[in-house]
Amino acid sequence: MSDGTPADLFFDAAINLLQRLREEEAEAIESAGTLLADTVERGGRLFAFGAGHSSLAAQDVVYRAGGLALMNLLTVPGVVGVDVTPATLGSALERVDGLASAVLDTSPLRSGDALVIISLSGRNALPVEMAQRARALGIKVIGVTSVAYAAQTTSRHSSGTFLKDHCDLVLDSKIAVGDAELTLDTIPAPFAPASTVVTTALMQAVLATTAATLADRGIEPPLLRSGNVDGGHDWNNRVMDEYGDRIFYRR
């Protein structure tokens, strides 16, 4: 590790990754934002899914100030976050064949909707199968993943494929295999993961594009306001009443 405090070096690494996304993923971000805007304009619903720490970026775009009210979280019991015991159960469930199909077949998702699947490695059975099944149901799929994993690891799905192979659009987070940005001679393992920072920023960039695209088409984007500003609750209630048939986190 070169000169600088660990904090400085981590900030540098995260900033460099964000700059790469800005430059290298600009076209994909624009396309993803447009796909979601098309879905909203046509009456479709929006969903996001992530397992483990990838779920944090999905949760960040659901029911939040400044976000699109129509973004719903697709949950799979036991794999969203570290709120299950043991926490390792979530990792095991990601490798179970058939789980994704069972979830989709009992979810509100239907043809004409859009699903964002976030998986850093994109190699486990759950995200691969989810993308396959969703597209078979007529759902548009945006994959958010690190393409490097497909080149440097092997798939854990029976097809031998990765999430990126089953998407209408792919956003490459550029995260290196192992998800650790720093090394130090006195520490035996690499450390300081940046995937949450980077993937969350990538998701917000896409949804900012969606909101602006809708506005350019003369459609008021259904945005939520903070409940901690005057009038915020009234605003949100109006939006939720207007789009209640496409919002599932209230039910």
TrEMBL record:
Residues 36-220 form the SIS domain. It comes from the Bacteria. Gene3D superfamilies: Glucose-6-phosphate isomerase like protein, domain 1. PANTHER family: PHOSPHOHEPTOSE ISOMERASE, SEDOHEPTULOSE 7-PHOSPHATE ISOMERASE / DNAA INITIATOR-ASSOCIATING FACTOR FOR REPLICATION INITIATION. It comes from Streptomyces graminearus. Belongs to the UPF0309 family. Pfam families: SIS_2. This is UPF0309 protein GCM10010422_11190.
